[in-house]
């Protein structure tokens, strides 16, 4: 429901190609969006039959054209705040959860590779709970070149790597920052890591070697938002 509501509220979205809803859900959507939320009324079982096996639809589903990504220049200028870059993170649930955390912690946007990245729909959009429509994204061919462009714009890149010596807290400050997250299995690729100004790790005193990439992204986004807030306090004083 949240994903459909966010898509309907997003002016950058094309008109819905097909909206399915139970009577109660259709009434709620119509009360908020009016004619823009005109839906085909079906019972829950009929909606389920039109979706992939196992999909939990909450009484509403929508087929819609994918969001157009922004250019890197449009996303990165002016150099302020926080961006998130995903290096071949391919699991839709993880990417959806990362978009949700990016929205929660005030990130400017998410940078994805145009290949080796899931489409921002289906299970991913549901896991994001509407965040794919609230957080802009850019799609680039080459992440290393993208980091070079962002550096020219005034961004610094902090890559997350478990083998790094520096803690994430020590690496972050109030400067415009791109947090670079590696894939679920292999982490950051070598060339991407080499284009980061610094590599940092999330300390894990419990002794466990790694955590899920979406959990790591949430921690990193929180630390980055905290570093910005502290930097702003120092500047104001």
Question: Overview of this structure, please?
Answer:
The chain has ten helices and nine strands. With 237 residues, it is an alpha/beta fold. The protein has two domains: 62 residues, no CATH class; 165 residues, SPOUT methyltransferase, trefoil knot domain (Alpha/beta knot). The chain is elongated, with a radius of gyration of 19 Å.
SSE arrangement:
Layout: H1 2-9, E1 18-21, H2 23-33, E2 40-41, H3 44-49, E3 60-63, H4 72-76, E4 82-86, H5 92-104, E5 109-113, H6 122-128, E6 137-140, H7 143-153, E7 156-160, H8 168-171, E8 177-181, H9 190-194, E9 198-200, H10 213-236
Parallel strand pairs: 1-2, 4-5, 4-8, 5-6, 7-8, 7-9
Antiparallel strand pairs: 1-3
Helix pairs in contact: 5-6, 5-10
């Amino acid at each position: 429901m949240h994903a459909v509501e966010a898509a309907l509220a997003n002016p950058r979205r094309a008109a819905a190609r097909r909206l399915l809803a139970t009577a109660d859900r259709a009434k709620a959507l119509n009360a908020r969006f009016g004619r823009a939320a005109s839906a085909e009324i079906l019972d829950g079982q009929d909606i389920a039959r039109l979706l992939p096996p196992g999909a939990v639809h909450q009484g509403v589903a929508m087929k819609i054209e994918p969001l157009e990504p922004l250019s890197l220049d449009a996303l990165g200028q002016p150099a302020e705040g926080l961006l998130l870059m995903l290096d071949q993170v391919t699991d839709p649930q993880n990417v959806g959860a990362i978009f949700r955390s990016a929205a929660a912690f005030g990130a400017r946007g998410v940078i994805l590779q145009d290949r080796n990245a899931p489409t921002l729909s289906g299970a991913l959009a549901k896991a994001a709970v509407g965040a794919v429509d609230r957080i802009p994204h850019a799609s680039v061919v080459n992440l290393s070149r993208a980091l070079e462009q962002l550096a020219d714009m005034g961004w610094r890149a902090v890559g997350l790597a478990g083998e790094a010596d520096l803690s994430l807290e020590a690496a972050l400050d109030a400067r415009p920052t791109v947090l670079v997250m590696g894939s679920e299995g292999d982490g950051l690729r070598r060339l991407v890591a080499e284009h980061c100004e610094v590599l940092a790790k999330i300390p894990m005193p419990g002794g466990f070697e790694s955590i899920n990439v979406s959990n790591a992204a949430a921690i990193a986004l929180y630390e980055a938002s905290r570093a910005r807030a502290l930097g702003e306090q120092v500047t104001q004083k």
